[in-house]
Amino acid sequence: MKRFFTISGLMLLFLFSYDAAFAQNVTVKGKITDNTNGQALIGVTVSVKGTAAGTQTDVNGAYSISAPGNATLKFAYIGYASQEIPVSGQTTINVSMLPQTNELQQIVVIGYGTQRKLDVTGSITTVKGADVAKQASPNAVSGLQGKVAGVQITNNGTPGKSPDITIRGLGTIYGNTKPLFVVDGVWYDDISFLNPQDIESFSILKDASSTAIYGIRAANGVVLIGTKRGTKGAPVINYNGFVGFQAVTNQVKVANGTEYATAVNELAALNNGKPVFADPASFGNGTDWYKQILRKAFITNHELSVSGGTDKYTYNYSFGYLDQDGLVQTNNYKRYTLHLSNDFKIGKIVKLGYTASGLSSTSRDIPTTIFNQLYGAAPTLPVRKANGGYGDPNDYGTGDGNNYNPQATIDFYNQRSKNKRVTYNVYGEVSILKNLKFRSSFGGDVSQAEVRTFVPQYQATVKQFSNKTNLNVDHTDVRNWIWENTLTYDVKINDDHKLTALVGYSALENVTRQNDGQADNVPYKANGNLQTSFPDTAKVTYLATPGRQIRSRALSQFARVNYSYKDRYLLNASIRRDGASQFYGAHTYGYFPSVGAGWVVTNEDFMKDQQIFSNLKLRGSWGKVGNSVVPINPTVQVIATDPYLTAIFGNPQVAYPGASINSIVPPSIVWERTVSSDFGLEGGLFSNKLTFEADYYNRETQDAIFAIPVAGSLGTNNSSIIGNQATIRNRGFEFLVSWKDQASKDFSYSISANLGINNNKVLSVITGQNPIYDGGAGIANGALATRTVVGQPIGQFYGYKVTGIFQTPQQVANSKQPGAAPGDFIYQDTNNDGIVDSRDRVALGNPLPKYNYGINTSFTYKNFDLAIDFQGVTGVSVYNANIAYRFGNENFTQDFYDHRWHGAGTSNTYPSVNVGKNSNAAPNSFYVESGAYFRVRNAQLGYTLPASLLSKWKISKVRIFANAQNPINIFGYKGFSPEIGGTVGDGGIVTGRGIDANVYPLYAIYNFGVSVTF
After folding, report:
1. Is-contact 900 912, C-beta < 8 A?
2. CA-to-CA distance for 261 and 254, rounded, in angstroms?
3. Could you point out which of 386, 444, 498, 952 has its C-alpha 20 to 30 Å from the C-alpha of 175?
C-alpha cells in the first residue's frame, strides 16, 4: 500500500510539473503557405484562442507569437478555411491553408462597413487591387475594363486623362455621369490622384440596396476603394517598375500625294473649277503627316513602398513616379504620387489612424485641333522648304480648308498644365461596449490646377502667325471636406440571429474657384519656362468664368439594419436623409430608402444531402438614390449687364448701362431621383470550382434635370431652360461565371467571363413627343446628328437613310431630291410624300452599347504565371464625323479614295469627293458605322525567381514580367478606334457621345517590368 501511494504521488507530481510547464508561455514560430501552390500568405491573423493576443504574418508568411504551452492557436485569412491547432508545447508550427470552399464566407466591403458575402442582398462586385495594378494602365479605373459586368469604361488616349465610366447605363444627363468614388471613406469625383499600386481592393456597388446609404451621390453607382495599409512585422520594402513604349493601334491610312492631287482636281471639276494641280503624279507619296507628327511614345512607371508595424501601430508609405509621352510630338505627362497611412492602437478600446495622398503632375499639352489637322493636311505640302522655312499651303492654292502646316502648329504651341493635390482622411474608433463601436472621420481634398498658354510672336506661313505675344493663365482652386460619424451595434444571439445596426451623420462642403486672365505683349522667359505670374507691367484682362465659382454644402443623416436568421434568411434596410444647398424650401431635403432580402437556399435542411450546389442564394432589392451634381442656383434669375447693352444719350453724350434677361429659369426644381430594383441568383458547384451570378435590374431616373430648347421669339440669348424634364429607364441583365481549379501541384488556372446587357429608353419628356436635337460636334454644316425622343435611347443618331449614289444627270432629273448631282447620296423618301426633306430623317443607330463583355484568365505553372484578358462591346454605333468635316480641300482616307464615286458605275455606296457638300455632309446612315469591337485587353507573362536563389541575397521575392495592353484590336470601324466616349454640352445632353471628331487615338502599350520585395 505504501508503494502504491508512493507511485501515485510521483505521478501526481509529474502531472503537476507537466501542467505547470505547459502553463508557461512559449514562443511559437512558423510559416503559413497556400496549400495549392505553396506561396507564402501575407497578413494571416494568428491568435491565441480565448484571449486578445494575436499577430499577423509578414511578407514571407512568417509569424512569431507568445502563447501558453497548452493553448490553441487560431489561423484566419480571408478566402481561406480557418484552422485551430493546439500548441502542445511546440515551438514551431507551420500551417498549410486551404482556399475557402465556401465563397459566401468571404468578406465584402460595403458602405460604412463590411459584410460576409453570404449576408449581401445587393449587387456588389469585388476586384482585387493586384489584378488592376499589374496592368500598364496609368489610371486605376482603366484597369477595371472588362472585369465587371454592367460597367462600361471608355478610355482616352490623352496622357493623364481619366476614362469615362458608367454603371448600368446612362441615366443622368446633366453634369457628371460618373459614379461616386469613395476612397478610404472620403468622396471624390475621380481617382486620378491614386497610383494603382496603392490600391488594395475595389467594391463596385450597382443596385439601390447597396448604394442608397450614399443618398445624394449614388444615382450613377458607387465605387469603394480601400488603399493598402501596414501589417504587423518587420519592415517590408517593395519596388515595382516597368518601362516600355506606346504605339497607335489601327492607324488610319490616308491618300498619298498623287492620290490627293487627283481627288482635289476631281473636286474642282465637280464644282466647275479649274484643276488645282497640273501633274498629280509628280507628287509621288508626298508627306505622310501621321508619320511626321505621331511617334512611338515612351512610358515608365516606378513605385517604392515600405510597410510594417508592431502590436501598437502599423504603417505603409509609398512613392510613385510616372513619365508618359503622348503619341503626338512634344506631348508629355509626368506624375508624382505619395501615399501615407498609419494605424495606432491606444489601449484595448481606441484606434486612431490616417491616410494621406499627394499628387504633383505636369503636362505639356497639344492643340485641341491637331488630329483634325493631321486628318485633313495636304500630302502635297512639304514639312519644310528648301530654304528651311515651313512648307506653306498658300503656295499650292488648295484653299483655306487645310491652310495649315501641322508641324508649325506643334512647334509654336506652348501650353503647360500643372496640378497639385492633397487628399486626406483622419479617423478614430472607440469600442464603447463589447458590441458597440463609434467611428468618426474627417477627410478632404485640396487641389490647385493651373493652365498657362503662351503664344509667341512668329511667322510660320501666310495663315499661321502672330503679331504679338499673349499669355493666358487659368487658375482653379478646390477645397472640399467631409465629416462623417457612425455608431455600429453588432450582436449575435444563439448562433441563430445576427443583427448589425448602424446610424450616422455626415456633413460636407465643396468649393471651386477659378480665375482666368490674359495679357498681350508678355515676354517669354529665357529659361524656356512660362511666366509664373503676369509681369507688373502687363495689362491683364480677367475673363468671366460663370459656373466656376461654386460652393455647395450638404447635411445628412442615415441608418441601416442588417439581419440574418440561421444564415438562411437575410434582410437589409437603409434610409438616408440629405439636404443640399442646390435646392430650396420644401425641396431642400430628399429621402432615399432601400430594402433588400436574401434566401440562402443551400443552408436549408432539405438541401443538406444534395450534391449539386456548394452554395445557392436568391436575393432581391429595391431603393431610391439621388443626384446632387446639378446646376447651382438654377431657379435664380440672373440679370446680364453686358457692355453691348449700354445706351448713349444727351449732349454731351452720357453712357447709360443697360441690363437684360438672357436666360429663362424654372420656378422650382426638385431632386433628380433614380428608383431601381434588382433580382439576383448566386451559386457554386463542384466544391465552388464553378461559381456563377445572374442579375436582372430595372433602373428608372425620375425628374431628370437637363436643358430643353425654348422658342427664340422669347428674346433670350440662351435658347434653353433647365429643369426637371424627363424620365429615363435602363433595364438589363448581368451574368458572371468563373471556373477555378488546382489541376496538379504545379499547375492551377482560372477562367471567368462576364456579360452586361442594357437597354436605355426615354419614357417621358416634358416636351411630349417633340424631339430634342443635339450632337453637332464635328458636323461641318452645323447640323445636329442626335435626337432624344420618347420611346428611344438618349442621344440616338438621327438623319437620312442612304439608298445609293446618283450615277447620271438623268437619274438626278427623275428624282425628288433638291440640289442633287451625280455622285451625291440618294436619300430615302421615308414618308412617301414625293420629296426628300428633313421629315424623311430616321433613327440611324445607338451610341450606347447594348452588350459589354469580358473574359479574364490566369494560369500558374511552377514559377511561371500568365494572365490574358479579353474585352469587347457590341450593339453600338459610332458616327464618323471626320469624313465630312470639310471646309475645302482636306485630304481623304485611303479607303474613301479607293471606293469613291468618280464616274457612272464606279460606286453605289461611296459618294464623290464632293462629300463636304451640305446635302452630302448632312447626318446620314453612311457616317454611322458599327462600334462593335473585340480586343486582347491585357496579356502578361511573369516569372518568379526561386526562393533558394534569392535567400543568399536576403531578397524575399523577385518577379519579372512582360506585358502588352491592347495589342490586338478587331473591329470593322474605319477610324482609329470605335471606343469613343462623350462630353456634356451646354444643352445638357451628352452631345459628343459616339461622335468621332478630332478624337485622340487609342494606343497599345508594350512594356517590361520587375517587382522586388526585401
Report:
1. yes
2. 13
3. 444
pLDDT at 9: 42
- 1011 close to 959: Cβ distance less than 8 angstroms: yes
This prediction has a pTM of 0.86
pLDDT at 372: 92
In sequence order, the β-bridge partners of residue 421 are 359, 447
- Please check the confidence at residue 804 and state whether its pLDDT lies above 60: yes
Which letter does DSSP use for residue 539 in this model? -
Q: Cα angle vertex 535, ends 530, 536, to 5°? A: 165
Contact predicate 393/402, CB 8 Å:
yes
- In sequence order, the 6+-apart residues with CB closer than 8 A to the CB of 719 are 709, 710, 712
Looking at residues 851-858, what average pLDDT do you find? Answer: 96
Beta bridge partners of 424: 356, 444
With pLDDT > 90 as the criterion, what percentage of the chain qualifies?
A: 60
Neighbours of 497 (CB within 10 A): 12
Contacts of 386 (CB under 8 A, 6+ apart): none
Question: β-strands 465-466, 458-459: how paired?
Answer: antiparallel
Closest to 538 in 3D by CA, of 628, 469, 598, 487 = 469
Mean pLDDT throughout 154-165?
A: 87
Helix (H) or strand (E) holding 685: strand 672-685
| Helical (H) or strand (E) element with 180 | strand 180-183
pLDDT-derived band at 216 (thresholds 50, 70, 90) equals confident
Per-residue pLDDT, 783? 85
578-611 pLDDT tens trace: 998 877 777 788 899 999 999 999 999 999 888 8
Nearest to 514 by CA among 470, 553, 479: 479
pLDDT digits (tens, 9 = 90+) for 512-562: 998 888 888 888 764 444 556 677 777 887 776 655 678 889 999 999 999
Phi then psi for 294, rounded to 5 degrees?
-85, 165
Q: Which helix (H) or strand (E) holds 18?
A: helix 2-23
User: What values do phi and psi take at 598, rounded to 5?
Assistant: -145, 155
Residues in the chain: 1014
Nearest-angstrom CA–CA distance, 512 and 552: 9
C-alpha cell at 204: 463596385
Give the integer Cα–Cα distance in Å for 295 and 403. 23
Integer CA distances (angstroms), 151 to 95, 220, 734, 780, 871, in order: 39, 11, 10, 33, 12
Question: Does an H or E element contain 755, and which?
Answer: strand 747-765
**Separate counts of helices (H) and strands (E) for the chain:** 11, 54
Q: Is the pLDDT of residue 123 over 70?
A: yes
Of 370, 375, 373, nearest in space to 254 by CA? 375
The C-alpha cell that represents 979 in the structure block: 471606343
Cell of 223: 465605387
Which of 930, 846, 843, 920 has its CA nearest to residue 880? 930
Residue that is written with C-alpha cell 462576364 in the block: 754
Pairing of strands 647-649, 151-154: unpaired
- Single out the residue of 671, 675, 773 nearest to residue 723, CA to CA: 671
Phi then psi for 23, rounded to 5 degrees?
-80, -20
| pLDDT tens sequence across 880-903 | 999 998 888 999 999 999 999 999
Q: Which residues pair with 139 in a beta bridge?
A: none
Q: CA 236 → CA 196, 318, 459, 482, distances in Å? A: 19, 11, 58, 33
Helix, strand, coil fractions of the chain, as percent rounded to 5: 15, 50, 40
Taking only Cα atoms into account, the Rg of the chain, rounded to an integer number of angstroms, comes to 33
**CA 270, CA 827: separation in Å to the nearest integer?**
20
Per-residue pLDDT averaged across 944-973, rounded? 90
Arithmetic mean of pLDDT over the chain: 87
> Residue 43's pLDDT band (boundaries 50, 70, 90)?
confident
- For the chain, give the longest Cα–Cα distance: 141
